[in-house]
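Narrative of activities, Objective 1.

The group set out to show that a structural description can be obtained from nothing but a protein's sequence at a throughput compatible with the screening campaign. Below is one input-output pair from the validation batch, recorded exactly as produced.
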Amino acid sequence: MKAVTWQGKRNVSVDNVPDPVLQQDNDAIIEVTSTAICGSDLHLYEVLGPYMDAGDIIGHEPMGRVVEAGSASNLKVGDRVVVPFTIACGRCWMCDRKLYSQCETTQVREQGTGARLFGYSRLYGSVPGGQAQYLRVPHADFGPVKIGEDLPDHRYLFLSDVLPTAWQAVQYADVPKGGTLAVYGLGPIGQMAARIGLHLGARVFGVDPVLERRAMAARNGVEVLDFTSDTNDEIRDATEGRGPDAVIDAVGMEAHGSPIAKAAHTAVGLLPDALGRKMMEHAGIDRLAALHSSIDLVRRGGTVSLSGVYGGEASPLPMLTLFDKQIQLRMGQANVKAWIDDLLPLVEDPADPLGVDDLVTHRLPIDEAPGAYEMFQKKTDGCIKVVLDPQA
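Output recorded for this entry:
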């Protein structure tokens, strides 16, 4: 089969690799009909190389049809499914509490991390990912979401990651009824977090330096601003001088405006893998401009919700400000299955209340993945969300 494989920093290729096979009686194999490139994939492309191995199959936003079903998978050949990016058993202590991204059955204990993820480095189990023609799905008796036949792939695909991650970010933000929310970063997660905030009744400000992203958010009802030195003051002026009730950081470790940490990212990429891993595990390498701006902006007693991925173990935080402003921080990988019952009716609603029809900017054959990664990272050609077609 064809699959997108990691080959080095800023280097992915489309290769012929062995087809996956059933390994457990609760496995399933799906033929992937759509698979998206996520902003988190760019961390593998740029920063997390020390945890990757040449030939790793990447990608964690897939959907498709079951072509083989293990006897205990609760699936049958022909089922149309979306596959969450987190791999969870659905039965352990953590899963019983709907903390599926912390599943005790699939935790990567040798790395000290949570549940295994598709296509996401040694940190999360080196599980072959979903940017491929076929995908083995472990714990298929719990993970896959069965969906209907009438709607196109893009109406369902983002249940794999984007929508649950954005929904959790808004839930964690805990905006009071009729309150105010600011979203830093209007990539796919930020776009959907802003729209979900609006759907749930908040006034939403969206901040991003990229014109095309601001334009997409604005046509979906978000009040948009460029990322400048005056942005936070403008939002405070619009919120009676206090700042919004909550801020979502949907940017993460590669924020603009962090030159020292950018140099650290570059250094990690140049070091041998073992030294690069040590630097990430013991140094503050994150580019924190968006997080610091979020902490500065949120009102006293408010909440900062992190959906952007961070990777440094010693990245500094302004503890005096956090304590003095009585700020609550919430964060973590999305517990995808916890939010599906809320989201599935919205993506199937003919009115499309979250504007899912207005997110994909590029749908390309899988053979064009290397160029798509470069385009997505450099934000050229108005690229906001890429979906790959493995069967084209």
